[in-house]
Task: inverse folding
């Protein structure tokens, strides 16, 4: 798997391997052997298995149903050309140009960060 391939580059390095976060609907099916590939789970459906036979609970955080809305809102707010698309309780999106707008916003955020 990809994480096995990446892990070998950090094996003898002074640099710590970055945390591996995963976004999914559920955390209830994640068991301790999944920790080999994922460090922390962000999930949208609040179905958790708190107690297993061995007492393990996968580390995770319930982020709610609006994760995509919050992410798009963040991108729009950070881009000066798109701030007019953000309203108090809604976002304006275009079926035709949505992906192009997002890519431009993400690129601008990356450029500012670097």
Result:
């Amino acid at each position: 798997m990809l994480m096995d391939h990446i892990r070998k580059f950090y094996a003898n390095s002074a640099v710590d391997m970055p945390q591996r976060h995963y976004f999914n609907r559920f955390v209830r099916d994640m068991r301790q052997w999944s920790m080999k590939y994922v460090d922390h789970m962000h999930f949208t459906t609040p179905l958790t298995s708190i107690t297993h036979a061995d007492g393990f609970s996968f580390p995770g955080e319930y982020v709610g149903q609006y994760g995509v809305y919050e992410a798009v809102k963040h991108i729009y707010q950070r881009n000066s050309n798109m701030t007019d698309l953000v309203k108090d309780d809604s976002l304006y999106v275009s079926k035709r140009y949505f992906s192009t707008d997002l890519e431009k916003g993400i690129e601008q955020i990356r450029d500012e960060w670097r």
Summary: The two ends are 29 Å apart (CA to CA). The longest strand covers residues 21-24.
